[in-house]
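Good morning C.,

I know you're traveling, so I'll keep this short. The sequence:
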Amino acid sequence: MKIICVGRNYIAHVHELQNEAPSEPVIFLKPDTALLNPEQGFFIPEFSTEIHYEVELLLKIKKVGKYIDRKFAHKYYDFIGLGIDFTARDLQQQLKEKKLPWEKAKAFDGSALVGSFVNKTEFDNLKNINFSLLKNDVVVQEGNSAHMIWDFDELIEFISQYFTLKTGDIIFTGTPAGVGKIAEGDILKGFIGNREIFQIKVK
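The tokens, ready to paste straight into the viewer:
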């Protein structure tokens, strides 16, 4: 199982971090050791003083595919979930300034929270999915799949040009504006619509 992440897929988030709008999806990977068990909580790593939350819609791949045409992409996933791409923002900034890869800031152990999944048949329109993140019961991020620069099927088409998608792979589809810092004791709750998908404590 691999975790494939998409960066800069919401224009408001691109502007928020003062990045340039990309001409194609920005892709990076997380290893399976990045997968976090929500019941254990998220432990702030010792190498960062600025861990940020980034809530994202997730796709769970259901069969093997390579060079997938966009018109067939919907056949490769049945479930949509919600998760957090935890990011060591201070470390990421240092790496970006040196033009080095982001992995230490994005792919460290426990950096990928994956909540529960919902069958896509439960949504009236996959291009109109509301989702949100609450920190200590205050809404800090709100997004809608309609605001994605590249939608689910476009992402699958693009990613599968470079990586064979396999059963169980998870795609993080990008985060909306509103990312921010976490602190010990914070409670993070993620929602798709009104349905709670995950809850986790920062330790």
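Safe travels,
E.
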